[in-house]
Amino acid sequence: MQPQSPPPNQNEGPPQVPPLPQPEVPVESDHFSSAASSLLFFGVSFLIGIVAYFLFWHNSLESIDFNEQTLVTCGSAIKLNHARTSYRLHSHNVRLPYGPRFSGQQSVTCVPYQNNPESLWLVKSISDDVPCNRGDPILKDSKIRLEHVSTGRNLHSHANFMSPLSGNQEVSAFGENGNGDSGDHFQVTWKRGLGDKWRKGMGIRLIHVDTHCALINDPQYVYSSVIWGHTEVSCSIDQDGNSVWIADEGVYFSQQTSGESRAA
């Protein structure tokens, strides 16, 4: 008689299988912290860039001085170069829109080309009664008029009308044969340390006397109709880099002898 094997233990259950190793799952908070740190870094860098732009680029425009010794004088016919874009202050016999918010006067714009004769402006005193002999230097904070040589109308602004693209205060060319009104008066000013006489190649601002805003050209506002490609000139209380201008090409009368002039 063969020995019998003991009956299986009913409580043992199925054989135990060792657990498989589980892959390590990255902790989501670490990913989140890394992404947040990157965003913070780029955000801070962007802000630093913006601050640097306004502190250095804006100030550098105000401080422009090519050390030209040619003086801007009464009777000189000059082109005004916009410092930020190198566009020239310009006018032509094209009217602004007319309506309750627009004057319909002759438009003033900026153009990218240098050789257009319609970008010449004659430097005058604010009134024929105020002495400004040909060849007299223009001193800092002087009040002047700029007459558009081709049409005989003065650079002008007024508080009751808005520029058609930006909505700033409108700038136009106004009057006949060089005669207009107090809206033609601009004060020439510049940063301290550049001397007391206006010189060619020096960064200046033109402040409208009646309304205290600055003449600006903002290159983001571009005409697309009759004067396609011209940028809008307006008057703004924000005296930033868009309000810096440089006397450039023109006919400059000498201070020594008012009869002498030279192209520069």
Account of the 3D structure:
13% of the residues lie in helices and 33% in strands. With 264 residues, it is α+β, with helices and mostly antiparallel strands. The strands form three sheets. The chain has a six-stranded antiparallel barrel. Strand 3 and strand 4 form a beta hairpin. About 4% of the residues have low confidence.
**Percent of sequence in beta strands:** 25-35%
What is the helical fraction, as a range of percent? Answer: 10-25%
The count of strands amounts to: 15
Q: Overall 3D geometry?
A: globular
H/E element sequence? HEEEEEEEEEEEEEEE
Give the C-alpha Rg. Answer: 34 Å
Q: Could you report the average pLDDT, rounded to the nearest whole number? A: 83
What key attributes describe this structure?
1 helix; six-stranded antiparallel β-barrel; six-stranded antiparallel sheet; alpha+beta; 15 strands; 13% helix; 264 residues
Short description:
It contains one helix and 15 strands; from the N terminus they run H-E-E-E-E-E-E-E-E-E-E-E-E-E-E-E.
